Proline--tRNA ligase
Amino acid sequence: MSKKLPTRQEDYSLWYNELVKRAGLAENSAVRGCMVIKPYGYAIWEKMQRQLDDMFKRTGHENAYFPLFVPKSLFEAEEKNAEGFAKECAVVTHYRLQTDPDRPGKLRVDPNAKLEEELVVRPTSEAIIWSTYKNWIQSYRDLPLLINQWANVVRWEMRTRLFLRTAEFLWQEGHTAHATAEEAVAETRQMLDVYAEFAEEHMALPVVKGVKTPNERFAGAEDTYCIEALMQDGKALQAGTSHFLGQNFAKAFDVQFANKEGGLEHVWGTSWGVSTRLMGALVMAHSDDEGLVLPPKLAPIQVVIVPIYKTGELDALLERIRPIQQGLIARGIAVKVDSRDTERPGFKFAEWEMKGVPVRLAIGARDLDAGTVEVARRDTKEKMSLPLADIVASVDQLLTDIQTNIYNKALKFRETHTTRVDSYDEFKRMLDEEPGFLLAHYDGTSETEERIKEETKATVRCLALAEPDEDGVCMVTGKPSVRRAYFARAY
């Protein structure tokens, strides 16, 4: 392996970037601001995708696919949405290239191939989807319409970071239509719960469920619900959002339905999404100075077996290892036997540690003769010698224990980095000295929110759904406040 990673303490940002590259998750591409997701990183994303897709389908949603391009006139139909995304849009203006007469062998845009109407490369799909729903929805019998798509989107970013902020990223976006506001709000809350369950049960990532302030709301939504997670540097990361759209898009695209009484009404909408940002959250919430720490439920390889052998012994040893390998596979455990004869065991240990494989078995003929197996767990770096006779059941249980331990460690970190503050001076001091979630009163105005953001770079992450009402005074203006908000600096 190459030299050690920078530590989180030395340079958290450099640690993250180096880890993403060295663990084989992703790398920068030839296209500025875009990334290549490498096979190991994509395998984690596929596991996320598979689990979320199952959860969506269990709640009645179906997958579809809509075009990458959105005619500008459709995009600007819902004004708040168009205005909110305008600065991030990539736009197609021409449909053909031609050879450049002034530069042999080179190409230029054909000046005669200008599109009659520009096409926006989707930053989000509400416009193209709601223009389609107009044709799909005529009657209350067509509702609810519960659609999800897995897609790529483009939001033109100048300052990028692998997984966290790239010009193109992968995501899913749900878009649903309902007969009543109550049904649409219930859908919005249900999908927030799905995201929270996925984050906590599979990513081992504790999250705060809440609602965004009007300043932070999705452009074109009546309400935006979110899950917020805390990273190891004390910064927050928005890990998923679910939006109640009211009738805004239905009115913009004239999506109406005949109700049971025969009258015409506009439908009520939602949209909700998570993206490859979750990969960044997974890395930043759990990993250490030696590499990735992956929760077993999302690890592409859950167990790696490293044979320990002398020259000429490998084939015989692999035969003796095979029953262990097959026993693990029979339990649904993803296992890899690292039988490369070009690398020493120490190199393999370091490599799989960097890649965050939850459990490592080092097996030699002497161990097998003695009826034992050396087992190392990635989360605590603990090594133990376990009986060969029970090794499959022991490893299965160990994976469950590791999943729980990783979650509990992240939860404890969040609890020790969540502080209630009452004064603006204390608020600013804590942001610099002990960053994390700060629960503070503020007067609820966008002016005060903007002032706090400008002066401290901290934002209201959410008004937590579980946070009780509590009379107080705004830490900035001294005006009355009825509850505390979650503040943090964020990615």
Observations:
- The radius of gyration is 26 Å.
- The chain has a mean pLDDT of 97.
- The chain is about 35% helix and 30% strand.
- The CA atoms of residues 55 and 194 lie 7 Å apart.
